[in-house]
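Crash report, auto-generated. Payload:
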Amino acid sequence: MAAVSSIEDVDVVVVGLGPAGALAAAGAAEAGLNVVAFERKKTPGQPVQCAEFVPAMLHHETAHIKAVTQQLISHMRSFVEGQPPDDTADFRGHMIDRDRFDAQMVAQARAMGARCEIGIGVAAISADGILQTTDGRCFRPRVLIGADGPRSIVGRAMGSRNTELVETRQITVALLQPLNGTDIFLRADIVGGYGWLFPKGSFANLGLGVVPNERDRLKPLLHQLHGELQEQGRVSAEIIQHTGGAIPVGGMIKCLGKLGTVEVLLAGDAAGLTNPIPGAGIPAAIHSGMLAGAALRGWFAGAPEALAEYEVELEDLYQTSLERACRRRAEMLSQYDHGGRPDAAALRRSWIAYDAYWAA
Ligand SMILES: Cc1cc2nc3c(=O)[nH]c(=O)nc-3n(C[C@H](O)[C@H](O)[C@H](O)COP(=O)(O)OP(=O)(O)OC[C@H]3O[C@@H](n4cnc5c(N)ncnc54)[C@H](O)[C@@H]3O)c2cc1C
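Recovered output after restart:
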C-alpha cells in the first residue's frame, strides 16, 4: 500500500453500493453510526448488469420495487431444446429498472446519514483492515462490509472468495410480440447456464450465461438465439444495448472474518448468496444487506454475538436451497464428462421449473 499522510477512523466502511451495500449502509447509519460507503461506478446502478427480474414476494418486503416496476410477470416458459415449451403458471414477479432501483437504495442510505462516495473505488486493503481508496485516502473502520459483488476485494483480503462463476452476455432488443412471462432456453450448447428472454414493456433483455472456459462462445450463442427469435418475429434485429457480468455459482462462502482488529462481513454476491441455477441474486442481496445492517446495530450497541448471528441467519435462509442448486449444477456439468452432453431429462433436472429438480 502507498504511503499516506493520515488515516480516517470510522465506525463502518461499506465497499460497493449495489442493493446489499446500500441497505447495509442505510441500516447502520440509521442507528447513528459513522458510515462511509464507496461505489466505484460513476452513477449507481449504471451500466445495468442484470436481467432485471425480481420475484413477486420481494415486493411485499421492500416498497422500492413498486416504484421501479416496468412490467409484471405472470408465468415462466421453459424451452428444453427439441421439445415443446413447458409452462409454469403462477410464476409471478416484476421486471424492474435496475439502475433506478440501485439509485433509490443509495438515496435511502444517504437519507439515513451514510456518507456515500460515488465514483470512488477501494483499491487496496491491508492485512490489518486499512483501506485505500482510488483517490489515495485511507480509512480504518471498526467493521468492514464487503458488498462488492462476485469478485469482492474485501472477500479476497479476508480469504473468502467466490471460486465458481458464470460469465454472461446480454442485449436489449425491441419486443415485436407481447410477452408477459419469462422465457428460459435450456440447451446442451449453453454449458453451465441458460438463455433468457425477459420482457420489459416494449423491450426485452435477451441473454445467456456459460462457464468461464466457454466464454468465447457467448457471442455466437447469443447471436444464434437472437437470430432464431428474429425469425419467429418475436424481437427486433436492432440491438439497443449490450451488457454482461459475472454471477457467483459456487454457493455460500464464509461471510464473517477479521483483518487485524477489524470485523469483516460479506453480503450479497460477495458472500456467494446468488442462486447458482437461475442466477438470481437481488432478493438475497436485499435480505443480506438488511441483516448486515441489523447485525451492525446490535454489535455497536454492545451485543458481540450479533455478527455470529448474521452468519447463522444467512445459513438458515440460504444454505439448503444453495446446496440443492450446487448439487444439480454439478450433476448437469458432469454430463459433459468424456465428451458427453446432457439430454432433455438432464436439462430438466437442472432447472427449477421441473419436479425432477426438486426431487430427492
Ligand atoms: C447479466 C446478469 C443478469 C442478472 N439477472 C438477474 C435477475 O434477473 N434477477 C436477479 O435477482 N439477479 C440477477 N443477476 C444477479 C444480480 O444482479 C446480483 O445478484 C445482485 O446485483 C447482487 O447485488 P450485490 O449488492 O451483492 O452486488 P452488486 O449489485 O454487484 O453491487 C456490487 C457493487 O460493488 C461495486 N464495487 C465492486 N468492487 C468495488 C471496489 N473495489 N470499490 C468500490 N466499489 C466496488 C460494483 O461497482 C457494484 O456496484 C444478474 C446478474 C448478471 C451479471
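Post-recovery validation: The first strand starts at residue 7 and ends at 15.
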